[in-house]
UniProtKB/TrEMBL annotation:
InterPro entries: DUF2298. Pfam families: DUF2298 (PF10060). This is Chlor_Arch_YYY domain-containing protein. NCBIfam families: Chlor_Arch_YYY.
């Protein structure tokens, strides 16, 4: 186990934390905690963005130095009293809450230690069960690329067409610590999880300190912050969906009703009846991420146990940072127009543009958060706009306040929506301009993407939606109903049940799940002062859940809406998990307040029955979503790599693929980015039968290029989504021609792609059979086990055709 490296990375994160604290305090100066939990996410963004831009000129020491200098200058400008410096006095210009900083640092360290422990037991970047070959290949190619964007290691001589911003940040951290990518992979993964946990703790804690104190009197703002933050960390980083707990609940049913109920659940999910009835002995951490048919339903704990260094995961700290910017704007008084405009038109576009590079799927969500914050903030969104536009919007209002007529109130609401839309549209234009080089380059391709309506057969059933989101829906419903004054709650319950029935009949189950939550939260924000920014996060999540039942991005990455739901649900989990930090104690404390004012009429064991019910519901929500974590971490603890715990992501190659390990190490030591040819990562073969069997997500697909970052001509079939099927298959044909074609055809293709080395190993022989490179243009430069690597002498190639 590489304990020295772990301590080195802890020291690096401590420095980033210290440098980020003044910037976080500037972002949330009046909030409880002063934004301390956002110190590392802010520092990572400030480090990465300048390095990214400089990297287009020179990616390496210059970009790293530029990022470090930018972070140092930004931290100094935010934290130091400039007037004091002029007079020779060194003092802080911001208020740092040391207790809050200690809390945030503790959360970060605990999160970091948890994932380090998880990865030390299974550190391998094996190809199965995820995107580790893609993620590690990006890390390796970034470590050796001279400029940005890096060359695509699965499509030689072309720039990568994937969102690689998170991997860029990981590369910067590996350079700062001098850590090889095989160790940096797992250490960066742990850091991103810790940054997510600390960000959730901070945002929920800051909101909770505003919303929760006073009930009971002993709950001070600091205690409220810790309570809300701690619950948010659980629901964001530890909790799971209801699949695991649901299986145990079904197994507890009486035999006569068990199988019919299980059959009904199976019909609404991807599980077979026998799978559900198998019991705890058959537990697999994997199954809880595949619930709704035709989709992937990941959540953070699953993702980090699985261990991909993937964009939808490593972009989550920035996503919550964007939510914090929205919160900062939301709580800034209307009179402080300068600060609100700086947040909306300055900070938000930079974060959105950077999120496009980290995880393009979250780019719209960052802007949507800004729009929701502007829409629901106490301040008039029109005041964000230039004077003439704001005047025209105000002129549309007829009447004001509660005394206004219904048409006037509707006009006022439309004006607010219009003002927020115009303001965020301007911010979006700035964000697109900042992200344009990426959006026109690495984010584009020939994959043929289009936005389409979700057909009825593709939509989620009510059972699947409740298995995935049920804990959140119940928790938020309890919170909203405890805060919003409704005279006929039974009528609301009947309306939701009716909506659910209608939704099932018309094939739109979200009508009875996410849509009522969206409507109740929206109306509550506009009518009740007891709801705040936590409800904005509820609206954001409910809107996304509803949206993916209506629209999806049609692309090559999985059939139908699989990838759309996959990339969207992680965002939903982060928003809703953070909001649960306020919602769970919120509905319990609301009941305590009612009891204190004499609302309770009956008791259970001497305690008011409402209070007992509220506490019981909170316990059920925690226990039901915590069962998975206990089983997943428990079963994971029983595994260990050969030789004991380690953070070496490639150690598995030596034990599981002897022969390949030395060949990969030899290619890795070449330096630079020569083009190395190996069998393409697809079972499609125009010239015969590929005997490798299943190719994608196995060792049979491009281990050399994936584990070295050295480009090959045609890598995994993922490239179909990036380049289009015709472009990818053309390359596959060319690779096939090099391995099986005539000498002149071979020479043409080797020259066309600048191939310098050719790999001939078990994977190539399984696809092509016997392979001969015996003429003078090829010489064996490496031999290990069944693997041969040939160097290509282009001058000795035969006359071209």
């Amino acid at each position: 186990m590489e304990y020295a490296l772990v301590l080195l990375w802890v020291a690096l994160y401590a420095v980033l934390f210290a440098l980020g604290l003044p910037l976080a305090a500037r972002l949330l100066p009046g909030a409880q905690g002063r934004g301390a939990g956002f110190a590392v996410p802010i520092a990572l963004v400030v480090l990465s963005v300048p390095a990214y831009w400089l990297g287009h000129v020179s990616w390496g020491p210059l970009a790293l130095a530029g990022g470090v200098l930018a972070l140092l200058v930004a931290s100094a400008l935010a934290g130091l009293d400039i007037d004091g410096l002029r007079s020779g006095t060194l003092r802080l210009a911001v208020d740092i809450d040391r207790d809050a900083a200690t809390d945030a640092a503790a959360v970060f360290l605990l999160g970091f230690a948890l994932v380090v422990a998880i990865r030390a037991l299974d550190p391998a970047v094996h190809p199965g069960g995820g995107e580790k070959f893609l993620d590690f290949g990006l890390l390796k190619t970034l470590a050796q690329s001279p400029t940005l964007p890096p060359e695509d290691f699965w499509f030689a001589n072309e720039p990568v067409q994937y969102y690689y911003g998170g991997h860029l940040t990981a590369t910067l951290l590996s350079w700062l610590t001098g850590t090889p990518p095989r160790f940096a992979y797992n250490l960066a993964l742990a850091g991103f999880y810790a940054a997510l946990a600390s960000a959730a703790f901070e945002l929920a804690g800051a909101i909770g300190a505003d919303r929760l104190p006073g009930v009971p009197d002993s709950l001070s703002p600091r205690r409220a912050r810790r309570l809300a933050g701690g619950i948010a960390v659980f629901f964001v980083g530890i909790a799971s969906n209801l699949v695991t707990a649901g299986r145990f609940a079904l197994l507890a049913l009486p035999e006569p009703v068990q199988r019919p109920v299980v059959a009904a659940v199976a019909a609404q999910s991807r599980y077979a009846v026998e799978d559900i009835l198998a019991g705890a002995d058959s537990f697999s951490y994997w199954s809880a991420s595949r619930v709704i048919p035709g989709t992937i339903n990941e959540f953070p704990l699953f993702a980090w146990v699985n261990g991909d260094l993937h964009a939808h995961m490593i972009g989550t700290p920035t996503l919550l940072l964007a939510a914090a910017v929205g919160y900062a704007s939301y709580r800034t008084p209307q009179s402080n127009r300068r600060r609100r405009r700086a947040l909306v038109f300055g900070v938000l576009p930079v974060l959105a543009a950077w999120q496009a590079v980290q995880n393009t799927w979250s780019f719209p969500s960052v802007l949507a958060l800004g729009w929701l914050a502007a829409t629901f903030a106490p301040a008039d969104p029109a005041t964000l706009l230039p004077g003439p536009i704001a005047v025209r919007l105000r002129s549309a209002v007829r009447g004001d306040g509660a005394a206004a007529s219904t048409p006037s109130r509707l006009l006022d609401e439309c004006r607010r929506l219009g003002g927020a839309t115009l303001a965020v549209s301007m911010a979006a234009a700035v964000a697109v301009l900042l992200a344009l080089p990426f959006l026109l380059g690495a984010a584009t391709g020939g994959g043929g993407r289009s936005v389409e309506f979700v057909e009825r057969s593709m939509r989620s059933g009510v059972g699947g939606l409740l298995l995935v989101h049920g804990a959140f829906v119940v928790g938020f419903a309890a919170y909203l109903l405890s805060r919003v004054h409704l005279e006929r709650r039974w009528a609301l319950v009947l309306a939701v049940l009716w909506a659910g029935y209608v939704g099932q009949q018309i094939g739109f189950a979200a009508l009875g799940v996410s849509v009522p939550l969206l409507v109740l939260a929206w109306v509550g924000l506009r009518t009740s002062r007891s709801l705040g920014y936590e409800t904005v996060l509820i609206v954001a999540g409910a809107g996304l859940v509803t949206l993916v039942e209506l629209l999806y991005v049609n692309e090559q990455a999985g059939p139908g809406r699989m990838n759309t739901v996959f990339k969207t649900y992680m965002q939903v989990w982060v928003f809703w998990g953070t909001a649960m930090g306020v919602a769970v104690p919120g509905f319990v404390l609301a009941v305590v307040e009612r009891d204190a004012t004499g609302a309770a009429r009956r008791s259970i064991g001497g305690l008011p029955w409402r209070r007992v019910g509220a506490v019981a519901l909170a316990v059920v929500l925690v226990v039901s979503t915590g069962v998975y974590g206990v089983l997943a971490l428990g079963s994971h603890a029983q595994s260990s790599p050969a030789g004991g715990p380690t953070l070496d992501a490639t150690q598995f190659v030596e034990t599981q693929h002897p022969g390949y390990d030395r060949a990969i190490a030899w290619v890795d030591e070449l330096g630079g980015q020569p083009t190395v040819l190996e069998a393409p990562g697809t079972g499609w073969y125009s010239g015969g039968t590929d005997d490798r069997g299943r190719v994608m997500y196995t060792w049979q697909a491009n281990p050399v290029s994936s584990l070295t970052g050295v480009p090959t001509v045609a890598g995994w079939q993922h490239e179909v989504g990036y380049r289009g099927q015709d472009s990818y298959r053309e390359r596959v044909r060319d690779v096939d021609a090099i391995y099986t074609g005539s000498a002149s055809v071979r020479a043409d293709q080797l020259d066309a792609y600048g191939v310098e080395y050719v790999v001939v190993g078990p994977n190539e022989r399984a696809r092509y059979g016997s392979i001969a490179f015996e003429d003078e243009a090829f010489s064996v430069v490496h031999r290990s086990g069944d693997v041969r690597i040939y160097a290509v002498d282009h001058d000795a190639l035969p006359t071209r055709s």
